[in-house]
Amino acid sequence: MKRMTKLWPALLLAGTLAGCGGQQTKPETAPVEPVSEAEKAQGERNGLPIQSGDQASGVEVIPIQSDSGEAVGAGLSPDEMQAGAEQTDQDMQPDAPVIYFGFDSDQVDEQGRETIKYYAEKLLDEPNVRVRLEGHTDERGSPEYNLALGERRAKAVAQILELYGVTPDRIEIVSYGETKPAVDGNDEAAWAKNRRVEMVFIR
């Protein structure tokens, strides 16, 4: 009798465990531990997309990468990324418009007139913008003669701008003569590129 008394608690425990064996229990979700600042810094140094506790939702965040494998915009603020985009846009902008001239001539041809007309309309749309007309020549002729020729070429462009409505106070004229060639060389191909007026816009 004493032996049965000792076995009763053991049998009761075994029956309880057997009854629980048929029930399905839903596993608890492990709580997400918040990530410390030190862990974030370590992860960023290793190039890993570390998430804080409130960000962990089963979605993996992977930085966009360029062809070289480097993360695009990594470590940059939104303002810095915008500045970078604006700089890229500026780098893609065309150079100053150029009007070309014949040998020893200050006459603007039809193509040059079309270019001047186009930019005159742009200037009328932008009243705060001025234009500097920089006259150039090829290397033939004396420095004094070429300075005067470069000035005549710039004045010829200015006259056409004024015909299309640009006021003289928005036009600046300067001549560099032969001192700033666009192309180095001693043949007609180079000289033709150097006989020019460049339109530089100033805000």
Give a description of the structure.
It is a single chain. The protein has 203 residues and is of the alpha+beta class. It has six helices and four strands. The protein has helices at 2-20, 37-45, 78-91, 110-125, 143-163, 188-194, and strands spanning 98-100, 130-136, 171-177, 196-202. The protein has a four-stranded mixed beta sheet with strand order 1-4-2-3. The protein is elongated, with a radius of gyration of 39 Å. It starts with a helix and ends with a strand. Mean pLDDT is 72; it is low at 17-33, 41-75 and 85-94. InterPro entries: Bact_OuterMem_StrucFunc, OMP_bac, OmpA-like, OMPA-like_CS, OmpA-like_sf, Pal, Pal_lipo_C. Part of the Tol-Pal system, which plays a role in outer membrane invagination during cell division and is important for maintaining outer membrane integrity. Residues 88-203 form the OmpA-like domain.
